[in-house]
Automatic annotation (TrEMBL):
A motif ('HIGH' region) lies at residues 9-19. One of its GO terms (biological process) is glutamyl-tRNA aminoacylation. A motif ('KMSKS' region) lies at residues 239-243. The gene is gltX. Catalyzes the attachment of glutamate to tRNA(Glu) in a two-step reaction: glutamate is first activated by ATP to form Glu-AMP and then transferred to the acceptor end of tRNA(Glu). This is Glutamate--tRNA ligase.
Length: 467
């Protein structure tokens, strides 16, 4: 059997972080088993589905590298096929027409408890003769669910065996009176026609699985394996909501997280492989399976996410990061300055965990310090005799260096303090202030090497003696 999974979001909003994890688990399971991972847009709710939401979902999936295999299936384009299956179930005796009015259905809900029923609909038209149908009423088509008083058990690949009494399953609607299919029918027909073998989704769909199980059976189709993964909760254990912070994938991108960070974090949010925390995509594909998915909800830990992002920033290609931060620094079209940013990236990423932090850390590489410095701590570095020491170092040492490398500059700093009999701070502090305008920066030799000889000397020369 070739494994086929699917991610099937409803385009009524952004790509939720929980949805992104569901897509990731479907993708990894399919890749691990050498199968296929497909995308389906469940846009049958035409009033709430929007092109803007579809675009946002697809953009988020593309950013995460979770595009599906083959063409995307849009559920709304298959209404005729869904109706065809409903009518086939009607012909085979597995479904029936129901002519109940809204008022009659409301009355049934009112008497449900006193009649001892667990479902609102009492099956009024289930076994009635169609000749009794009222004139001028368009019926809905309902499925005949089990009425034998038994129970249904689903062998869930995450939750284990889950059982529900059949009297809790109602004869739900397959086709509305206007001929449009319901969500429950569309999902089952599409899963069958797409050849889906494993339905991996949030455990908020677990109850639906029992209805869908019987619909597969009624249609004479193989039932796919189900795997219902727990939802993601906020740090306080409550269901993840706006008050906990970002919910949509695009918000995490705007906050400065890398896609590889988010995938690694979501992977570990409910799935484990020993004590491994940092897991590459190749490792994830090799290791991922559903038996290691926990049954309890996972909690978001934003500090852990930020720390993980710091790791991936340090692992990322410097040129890629330079391209990412260049627009925020106003140098997107300047290849020379982007090259400088890329050269300085090894030192910059040691001081940042997110893209905005990286932007702040890198600013001095594209903007010369303006004196007097606004930062009080940095201003102290270029006060007193500091500027004179920095200028002396530039004139007597830096100006004569031909081989302008980080190693040479490191030796130049070391030799200068030794020859002058001073502490490193006497030269390091004013030079740092002159070059970066800050009191904290990457290693000075590295900064000078990245800025280059001309820019380094120009910045020190611009340092006012009375700063």
């Amino acid at each position: 059997m070739t494994v086929v999974t699917r991610f099937a979001p409803s385009p009524t909003g952004f790509l939720h972080i929980g949805g992104a994890r569901t897509a990731l688990f479907n993708y990894l399971y399919a890749r691990h088993h050498g199968g296929t991972y497909k995308l389906r847009i469940e846009d049958t709710d035409r009033k709430r589905s929007t092109q803007e939401a579809i675009d946002a979902i697809m953009d988020g999936l593309s950013w995460l590298g979770l595009n599906g295999d083959g063409d995307i299936l849009f559920q709304s384009s298959r209404a005729d096929r869904h109706a065809e299956v409903a009518k086939a179930l009607l012909d085979s005796g597995h479904a029936y027409r129901c002519y109940c009015s809204p008022e009659e259905l409301e009355a049934m809900r009112g008497t449900m408890k006193e009649e001892g029923r667990k479902t609102p609909y009492n099956g009024y038209w289930r076994d009635r003769d169609p000749s009794e149908a009222p004139a001028g009423v368009d019926p809905v088509i309902r499925i005949k669910m089990p009425r034998d008083g038994g129970a249904t058990t689903i062998k869930d690949l995450v939750q284990g065996d889950v059982t529900i009494e059949n009297d809790q399953l109602d004869d739900f609607i397959l086709l509305r009176a206007d001929g449009t299919p319901t969500y429950m029918l569309s999902v089952v027909v599409d899963d069958h026609d797409m050849g889906v073998t494993h339905v991996i989704r949030g455990d908020d769909h677990l109850v639906n699985a029992f209805r869908q199980f019987h619909l597969f059976k009624a249609a004479g189709w193989d039932v796919p394996a189900f795997a219902h993964i727990p939802l993601i909760h906020g740090p306080d254990g409550a269901k993840l909501s706006k008050r906990h912070g970002a919910l949509g994938v695009e918000q995490y991108r705007e906050m400065g997280y890398l896609p590889e960070t988010l995938k690694n974090y979501l992977l570990r949010l409910g799935w484990s492989h020993g004590d491994e925390e940092i897991i590459s995509e190749n490792q994830a594909i090799e290791w991922f399976d559903l038996d290691a998915v926990g049954r309890s909800p996972s909690r978001m830990d934003f500090q852990r996410l930020e720390n993980l992002n710091g790791h991936y920033l340090r692992e990322a290609d410097p040129g890629r990061l330079a391209d990412m931060i260049a627009p925020a620094l106003g140098v997107d079209g300047d290849e020379g300055l982007k090259a400088r940013l890329a050269a300085g990236m090894p030192g910059l990423t040691q001081r940042a965990n997110t893209i905005p932090q990286l932007v702040d850390a890198a600013r001095f590489y594209v903007e010369r310090p303006r004196f007097p410095l606004e930062n009080p701590k940095a201003a102290k570095l270029v006060a007193g005799e500091g500027p004179a020491v920095a200028k002396d170092f530039a004139e007597t040492v830096l100006a004569g260096i031909e081989n302008w490398t980080e190693a040479t500059l490191h030796d130049a700093l070391k030799n200068y303090v030794e020859s002058k009999g001073i502490g490193f701070g006497k030269i390091g502090q004013p030079v740092r202030g002159a070059l970066t305008g800050t009191n904290a920066s990457p290693d000075l030799a590295q900064v000078m090497a990245v800025l280059g000889r001309e820019e380094t000397l120009a910045r020190i020369d611009a340092l006012p003696l009375n700063a």
